[in-house]
Amino acid sequence: MAQEHAHSSAVERLLNCEVPLRAQYIRVLFREITRISNHSLALTTHAMDVGASTPFLWAFEEREKLLEFYERVSGARMHASFIRPGGVAQDLPLGLCRDIDSSTQQFSSRIDELEEMSTGNRIWKQRLVDIGTVTAQQAKDWGFSGVMLRGPGVCWDSRRAAPYDVHDQLDPDVPVGTRGDRYDRYCIRIEEMRQSVRIIVQCPNKMPSGMIKADDRKLCPPSRGRMKLSMESSIHHFEPYTEGFSVPAPSTYTAVEAPKGEFGVFLVSNGSNRPYRRKIRAPGSAHSQGLDSMSKHHMPADVVTIIGTQDIVSGEVDR
Amino acid sequence: MYIAVPAEILGIILPLLLGVAFLVLAERKVMAFVQRRKGPDVVGSFGLLQPLADGLKLILKEPISPSSANFSLFRMAPVATFMLSLVARAVVPFDYGMVLSDPNIGLLYLFAISSLGVYGIIIAGRSSNSKYAFLGALRSAAQMVPYEVSIGLILITVLICVGPRNSSEIVMAQKQIWSGIPLFPVLVMFFISRLAETNRAPFDLPEAEAESVAGYNVEYSSMGSALSFLGEYANMILMRCPCTSLSPGGWPPFLDLPISKKIPGSIRFSIKVILFPFLYIWVRAAFPRYRYDQLMGLGRKVFLPLSLARVVPVSGVLVTFQWLP
After folding, report:
1. B1 has a pLDDT exceeding 50
2. B287: which chain A residues are within 8 Å (Cβ-Cβ)?
3. What stretches pass through the bilayer (chain B) (predicted)?
């Protein structure tokens, strides 16, 4: 959902459209759920590459619960298509906040279990400490972002540096590493999961009631119930779904702090309803180019695990 | 000369084969339960017929071998591995007098057989005529050697305490107290060295999929790989037997309690034998893998000096207090 958020933010910036507060809170809530889901996958598949097969299955049990939240809110477990330009697609169903709350209450214990298997384990430390080290200058040169950049100590988090939505009110702590090796990145991801849990706990409490889409009917179609009642609603439903809406001319680059790094969308519009150019800046494609320099002076068995720690998904590398 | 009766031989080998088959199932089930899922439980209730199904499948599959592989060696290598682990059971005592053959050098015989097991792996890898298999075989073999030496030194430590006897008498000597209790660090080192010797996690980099494409038996299919695999598991069970003889006491009754005297000795032995493969599986589920150079460093720089460092003080203490048997 972070990627949907990036694209929607780009479109909204071009349109100069204001997203209602409730929609912003919902977006942040699901962004942090995405972050936990991504980190549990990334960390534990990385652990499986190193050899520990158990954290993978434990984390996926947690991920099942999060995917169930996705499905309840949007209908799809993974590619939710929930965050749309102007707000979110639908309001949260009844009971979702209560279920999210009960799920997060036990989630910290699950993170503790994962940590118990790995963090103090001497085999784990031997495999991860001082492997795949990146200095701060190298990280900036190669264009790393996200955890790869915070590992060597560069404190850059798009949520803090260029706050969007309501992040300035939620105030997460941003964990930053010191040595820039794989162990630091692993610890940062675990800590980010805990901070995401903190945000998830705060969001439903602070969420106001209200609209979940921008008021501009040319941008956000009305609900289906409304649509059948009045002529204008039918037109406002028909137009976006067939022709789309027009976006004014200049271009924008909007980036969000996706769990894998900084996910950016460069959108150039020529005033019509189709973008002239949309370039996606995926964090994985920048990280994968650093593989060579990161794995120098290490063994072949480390290359596999360095790929894991960069949190690369081939899909976003190739696009 | 001790003449072995064929029935006795069958009585040792058949349960071992069954045990190995079910150990494969047990590994899958135990790992599954550690990982919050169920293992195979479709074939037969609780998956108990799964080894049968797997065995049938492997027998019925077409054996493919590389055309440039050395034919006779390629076929013989997994057979040799499996046969050696069966043969080593000849000197393991199950109860008073229940041992196929009881030479005075029983423990040495066990040690020699496990050293011969290295040949099976090297021959399997080399005769496959494939780069990766050969590399995997060399790495497995090179990993086994320092841990073998470490095991030998640990056996010496125990033998010093017990005296030069045949295997049954070594077990009998633990009537007062199990060797594993005063020599508990030695038991731990023995366990870890056995993990490394049988290429089990966390020392299984030569067999790991991601790093070295399944190691020395990559070119084998159907029964060839099944035999290598079974040989490895038979080694796991087998290596519990010196553990049992040395450490938690083998078949003598637990602290001479009348209740445990009622259970037959071989059952007591089997219960103790079952414990260690369970620990092996548990360790495999819990820990990540050592990288190869870290594994070798651990063997040569940690376990070898440690085992040597156990022999010297133990013998010193025994000589000083004249407790030598």
Report:
1. no
2. 51-52, 121, 123
3. 6-26, 104-124, 145-165, 177-196, 269-287, 302-324
